[in-house]
Write a structure and sequence with these properties.
The protein is 58% helix and 10% strand. By secondary structure, the protein is an alpha+beta fold. Strands 2-1-3-4 form a 4-stranded antiparallel beta sheet. It starts with a helix and ends with a helix. It is a multi-pass membrane protein.
Length: 177
């Protein structure tokens, strides 16, 4: 690698960094939140474009930046449409899954999501809960994290945060009550 190539990489890196910073600030906080599958694809694609701009001498800086901006526009449009349309939301986003409710593990859902019982128990322990009987519900969230909802005074409480679970799980939950 000669001095000219080092200079190009340095200048292009600095310019790309400034453009990325500007575009990410413009695109809003949603771009930097926990990722769903579409966000992950966009992030990997952005990294690939950025890497190609830096390494590939034949890649024109403006073409790479144009692709970068297009990807961020796609990400913005997907989040905009999914927040305003139930159809787009169902297509683009996963839904939370109820893994445990009031003493009952939903083994079929755990198998489908590839979550072993040990991970559910780990999530319960991480919340400082020592007994499964003290847990109202355990949910696998759309970003892959596991949420634990404790019972209040060892009693099941109204869990209105479970309304976005799919209908099949809601029916299972209602059957238990």
């Amino acid at each position: 690698m000669n001095t000219g190539q080092f200079g190009r990489i340095t200048v292009v890196s600095f310019f790309c960094y400034l453009v990325i910073l500007f575009v990410l600030r413009l695109s809003g906080k949603r771009t930097l939140l926990k990722m769903n599958a579409f966000d992950f694809i966009i992030t990997v694609s952005l990294g690939t474009v950025f890497g190609n701009i830096l390494i590939n001498q034949d890649e024109v800086l403006w073409e790479g930046l144009y692709i970068f901006c297009l990807l961020l526009i796609f990400q913005f449009l997907s989040s905009y449409l999914s927040s305003r349309s139930a159809l787009f939301s169902r297509i683009l986003k996963a839904h939370p899954s109820l893994l445990f409710y009031d003493g009952t593990y939903y083994e079929d859902k755990m198998k489908k999501e590839r979550i072993p019982k040990s991970e559910v128990l780990q999530a319960i322990r991480e919340q400082g809960i020592g007994k499964v009987e003290e847990v109202a519900a355990v949910i696998l969230e759309t970003d892959g994290t596991i949420s634990v909802l404790p019972k209040k005074n060892n009693e099941l409480r109204d869990l209105n945060t479970l309304v976005d679970l799919d209908e099949n799980q809601e029916n299972q939950k209602n059957d238990i009550e």
